[in-house]
Amino acid sequence: MLSDLKHFSKSCFARQNPCDDAFFYSVARKVTHIDRGAIAALTDFLSEQLPPSGTYLDLMSSWRSHLPPDPRGHVTGLGMNAEELADNPQLAEWVVHDLNAEPRLPFEERHFDAVICTVSVQYMIRPLEIFREVNRVLKPGAPFIVSFSNRCFPQKAIALWLAMTDAEHVELIRSYFGDGWDAVLTQNNLPENADPLFIVWANRSAG
Fold this sequence. Notes:
This protein is of the alpha/beta class. The chain has one domain: Rossmann fold (3-Layer(aba) Sandwich), CATH 3.40.50.150. It is built from six helices and seven strands; from the N terminus they run ααββαββαβααββ. It has a seven-stranded mixed β-sheet with strand order 3-2-1-4-5-7-6, with helices on both faces. The chain starts with 20 loop residues before the first helix and ends with a strand.
């Protein structure tokens, strides 16, 4: 586990391109950021871990969520580009919201049965605040599942992420969870012929 992130300098969360995220993400980028093998592995994992019905939040969502194809209840997407979100067939509703500008989530406390964040955690410049907000909007015992690979937009990833190895990324995300969570778990999927997939997750504490 990494040391207390409060002691990290602001430069750790600086980015090569400091321009307004709303401007950067104003152009729709309808690409998948992991290959088919990694997508299949993620979908299988989510199928096993997510409750079979309920309300779910796809945090930092895009035009694809990689959720299991069977009905999974009511999925809300929160992302940066309206065109991408509108084109996501798994979203029942969506909202454009810049977490780096305003980490507070526009949802009630204890609202969701699960939250996922797929291949986007490396862009958070205020991760501790965001993870606390996810904890707030989750129901007790509900999971927050964070997945990532070795791809990113380097101009928008934080400096700390770009300086780290994949193994260090896993430890970094573990550190983001902080208080209010049960044991933080990890899973690595490192196939020879597909993108690597790293998953870090924990359930909100019941208390």
